[in-house]
Amino acid sequence: MTKTTTFVVLFLTLAAACASAATYSLTLFQSAAVGGKVLKAGEYKLSIEEGKAVIKQGKESVEVPVKVENGPDKFSVTSVRYTEEGGKSKVKEIRLRGTSTKVIFE
Which residues pair with 22 in a beta bridge? Predict the structure, then answer.
C-alpha cells in the first residue's frame, strides 16, 4: 500500500471509532418500563447517540428518544431514577458514572 492509501485507511478507521456511541453498563434493580416495554431487573448495556438511547440485554433491545443534559459535576456511580405511573415503575432518568451526563427519558 502506498503512504496515501495507508493514511486514508487509518483516518477512516479513526473517524468510525470516534463516531460510534459510547456504551455504559447499567443495572436495573427492579422491573421498569422503558419506551412502553417492561424490562426485568438485571444487567444491561446502554448506548446513546443522536437523541436516542438503546438499552440492550443479550438479543433483546429497546430504543427510545431521550434528552441528554450535562451537569457541573461528575457522578461517582451510575444511578437509575424511577417514577410510578398507574402503580408501575418507569425509568425516568439515568446518571452515568464517571461523567456529568444525565439521560432523561421523555
Answer: 48
